[in-house]
Amino acid sequence: MGKVFVFVNQKGGVGKTTSSINIGAYIAVAGKKVLLVDFDSQGNMSSGVGVSKEKPTIYELMAETATAEQAIKHTKVANLDVISASIDLAGAAMELVNQQDRNFFLKRVLDPIRDKYDYILVDCPPSLGMLTLNGLCAADEVLVPMQCEYFALEGITLLLQTIQQVQKGLNSSLKIGGIFFTMYDSRTRLAQDVVMQVKSYFKDVVFNTIIPRNIRLSEAPSHGEPICLYDPNCIGAKSYQKLAEEVINRG
């Protein structure tokens, strides 16, 4: 049965979508079957791998108006598939509020197709709302991208509290798969201090690989390609390849 990872950080702009795309792509390059699930109404994961946001999307699967087989789209990378998202997903949280099983809609969608993939990577919206709770309830492990700045330290405390609440009441098997740093600038003292503080507190939970600031990583989504296709020789590509290897080895 494939392992489900959910990428979560309530703060936007931390490289969450970039990370889910590129970690997934490099796991696929390593020969594993990977499904990316775009669970953010902005649909950036979908466009970032060059697939359309046309129906059926993850919203239609949650509404049971389409099957997973109809919604799964292939990407330019072998072994890498995606279920896209569209703006329709923005209204899903409101629709879920009064549903009795509102925290388990994504789990219900993913469980029947888990055996078809080695890894399922879910990109959640930058919030701790209903959609993110669905992601946490469907996942085996949480991966937390973290930007090297002061407010990131404050935000991770709230995120960990949310994860603990989910572990207690909704998904007792949920684990923190790891924390990793993005947009790292070694020239700044703040970035170095944040890395040191987080590593000293979380120890082995923190991945060794740090993703640096790299313009090629920022350019790749506009071309609808993971970095492994857009510029496999840049420092960003090499860093994500190493991080993907760490994810595989921890599994």
Automatic annotation (TrEMBL):
Membrane-spanning segments: none
Boundaries of every AAA domain copy: 3-176
InterPro entries hit by this protein: AAA_dom, DNA_Partitioning_ATPase, P-loop_NTPase
Highest taxon, organism lineage: Bacteria
One Pfam family it belongs to: AAA_31
Protein name: Chromosome partitioning protein
Organism listed in the record: Treponema rectale
